[in-house]
Amino acid sequence: MNEKVIAVVTAGLTTPSSSRLLADQLAEAVRDELSGRGIGSRIELIEVRDHAHDLTNNLLTGFPSASLREVLETVTGADALIVVSPTFSASYSGLFKMFFDVLDDQALAGKPVLLAATGGTERHSLVLEFALRPLFAYLKALPVPTGVYAASTDWGPNAAGLRPRITQAAGELVAALHHETPTATDPFNNPTPFEDLLNS
Fold this sequence. Notes:
This protein is of the alpha/beta class. The chain has one domain (3-199): Rossmann fold (3-Layer(aba) Sandwich). It has seven helices and seven strands. Strands 1, 2, 3, 4, 5, 6 and 7 form a seven-stranded mixed sheet that branches. It holds the Pfam family FMN_red.
């Protein structure tokens, strides 16, 4: 069985964090999509906070430690990436940016990436388009069309509303792995019957 390696980079600062929770759900959805195609997968989870000191030293000295080098090689050697950052000042976190600053600017060239972010309010959802997408375009990666933003209101009783975005983005990442054009889901293909709308 052809196994795909998916590196998941999450930059949450707390344990547990909403960024890690979103990362786990995205990884599970990608694994399910691959499994549905008869393809195995290996998920390599990277918590950036665990490498904060090594990242700082790398920026100061220009050389990664042995453990950080191993992590960076995991990212550059993966078939695809899932990246999740908490939102700070309407952008990705400094820790998240620091991780990608120490990568060679060609290291992610041509690599499919699923972009995701978390935040306290829906007002910051454009962080995906105005911060993360330009960063990965600069790194010559291939972000999939659908990014996933999860606000505080997307958890708990409202978690079901997040699921379609996760499924859509996961499908696009797997399609990108196979150089396919993802099929857009038309919400009007299966409209809710008018009688059901009247009764709701």
